[in-house]
Write a structure and sequence with these properties.
12-stranded antiparallel beta sheet
Length: 394
C-alpha cells in the first residue's frame, strides 16, 4: 500500500517537470529562433515479483518524463530593415565559430566587430562562410574595404543621329576614368561633313575634356540605309595627358535617319570606374556575403555556411537562440540554395515556433494528471489511516 504513495509521488514529480517544460515554451513565445520542446510521459515498471497467491508479474512503479525532443518546424520569417538580419528558408542552421567552439543558430542579428569579423550581436561567435574548398572559415571585411579603380576602355553609343541635322550634335557628360581612378569628363561633338570631298553620311567626331582641351577628331560614316559603316564602327581616342585610351563603339544600334534637328544619340554604357569605399554589407540572392562600394561595384566574399544535421536529436538548445551538437559526425556543411538546407534570407528574422493551442491543451492535461496523482496519495493515506485504526477498534 505504501508503494501507491510513491507511485503518486512519481506522478507529481513528472507532471511538475512537464509543467516546467510547457511554461518554458510559453514564456519563449516571442524569442527569436526558439524551438519548442515536446512534453511526453512514460510508465515505469519494477522488477518481477511473486505474490502470496503464486501470481508472478511485473509491478508498475509509476510514471516518469519521456525524452524531450526539440520541434524544428520553421517559425514565421519576419521582415526587418537590417541587411545583416539573417534567417533560413528551409531546414538548415547557420554555423558560428568562436575559437575552437562551434555553435549553430536558425536566425540572428549580425554586426561587424572592431576586427572586421561578422559576429552574432552580443556574442563573440563569428559567422562561418565557405572557402574555395568548401570548408567553413571566418573572414574579416577589413581586407576588402576598398575597391580598386578600373580604367575606362570603352564607351558604347546608341539611338539615332539625325541625317538631316543642320547643327552639330553634342553628347556630353561622358565619365572617363584613368588607371589611377581619376575621373575626366569628355564631350563628343558630331558635325556633319559637307565638304565637297566628303562621302555621304560622314560625320566629324571631335572629343574634348572638361577643360576644353582637344583629345582628338575622327570620322564616323553611315551607309545609305542609315546604318553605321562596319569599317568605322569603332573610333579610338587617346588622351596623352591622362593616358586614357577609349574606344567609342557605334555598332550597337546606332542609326542615322532623318529626324530634323532632333538627335537622340547618347552614350549608353561606359566601362571603368574610380576607387570605391565600403558602403554596405549584406547577403545576395545566392546566399553570398556581398560588399557594396561607393563606385557602385560589388564584391562577393564567400557563401554562407549552412549545416544539415541528419538527426536533430543531436542538438541541444542553449540560451540566446543557440544550439550545440553532441555529435558532429552526422552533419553536412553546404552552401545556401541546396535543397537539403534551404536558402539564407537577408532582412529576415525567424520567430519562435511555439503553438499556443498545443501548449494550452498540454497545460490542461498536465494539470489534470497532477490532480489525479495527488488524489492517489490522498486516498492511500486514508486507507493507511483506516488500517492503523483496525487495532484500536479491536
Amino acid at each position: 500500500m505504501f508503494g501507491s504513495i510513491y507511485i503518486g509521488l512519481s506522478g507529481l514529480a513528472a507532471y511538475s517537470r512537464g509543467l516546467q517544460q510547457i511554461s518554458n515554451n510559453v514564456a519563449n513565445l516571442n524569442s527569436q529562433g526558439f524551438k519548442e520542446s515536446t512534453v511526453t510521459f512514460e510508465n515505469v515498471l519494477g522488477a518481477n515479483s511473486r505474490s502470496r497467491n503464486g501470481y508472478a508479474g511485473t509491478a508498475g512503479n509509476g510514471v516518469r518524463n519521456g525524452e524531450s525532443r526539440l520541434d524544428f518546424a520553421q517559425g514565421e520569417l519576419r521582415q526587418t530593415d537590417r541587411d545583416l538580419d539573417l534567417a533560413i528558408q528551409g531546414e538548415g542552421l547557420l554555423m558560428l565559430i568562436r575559437g575552437d567552439k562551434v555553435a549553430y543558430t536558425r536566425t540572428g542579428s549580425f554586426e561587424v566587430d572592431k576586427s572586421g569579423f561578422i559576429v552574432l550581436s552580443g556574442t563573440e561567435y563569428r559567422l562561418a562562410t565557405l572557402n574555395d574548398a568548401g570548408r567553413p572559415q571566418t573572414l574579416s571585411v577589413d581586407l576588402s574595404r576598398t575597391s580598386a579603380p578600373k580604367a575606362t576602355t570603352k564607351v558604347a553609343f546608341t539611338d539615332n543621329l539625325s541625317s538631316s541635322a543642320t547643327k552639330p550634335v553634342t553628347v556630353g557628360g561622358i565619365d572617363v576614368f584613368d588607371a589611377t581612378g581619376a575621373k575626366h569628363v569628355w564631350q563628343a561633338v558630331f558635325t556633319k561633313d559637307v565638304s565637297a570631298n566628303a562621302a555621304t553620311g560622314s560625320w566629324n567626331v571631335a572629343v574634348t575634356d572638361d577643360k576644353g582641351a582637344a583629345i582628338g577628331t575622327q570620322t564616323l560614316r553611315f551607309g545609305t540605309g542609315g546604318s553605321v559603316d562596319p569599317t568605322a564602327a569603332t573610333l579610338t581616342f587617346s588622351d596623352s595627358v591622362s593616358g586614357a585610351s577609349v574606344a567609342f563603339d557605334f555598332s550597337q544600334g546606332v542609326t542615322s535617319f532623318s529626324g530634323g534637328d532632333v538627335s537622340t544619340l547618347r552614350a549608353s554604357a561606359v566601362d571603368g570606374y574610380g576607387q570605391g569605399t565600403f558602403t554596405s554589407l549584406g547577403v545576395n540572392g545566392q546566399g553570398q556575403l556581398e560588399i557594396g562600394y561607393s563606385n557602385e561595384q560589388k564584391q562577393q566574399l564567400g557563401s554562407i555556411a549552412i549545416v544539415d544535421f541528419r538527426d536533430t536529436a543531436q542538438l541541444s538548445q542553449q540560451a540566446g537562440g543557440l544550439f550545440t551538437a553532441l555529435d558532429t559526425s552526422q552533419r553536412d556543411i553546404l552552401p545556401s540554395g541546396d535543397v537539403r538546407v534551404g536558402k539564407v534570407q537577408s532582412r529576415r528574422l525567424e520567430a519562435s515556433n511555439v503553438d499556443l493551442t498545443v501548449e494550452f491543451s498540454d497545460l490542461i492535461l498536465v494539470q489534470r494528471g497532477f490532480q489525479a496523482s495527488s488524489q492517489i496519495i490522498s486516498v492511500t493515506n486514508d486507507m493507511i489511516q483506516q488500517l492503523f485504526g483496525i487495532r484500536g477498534q479491536s
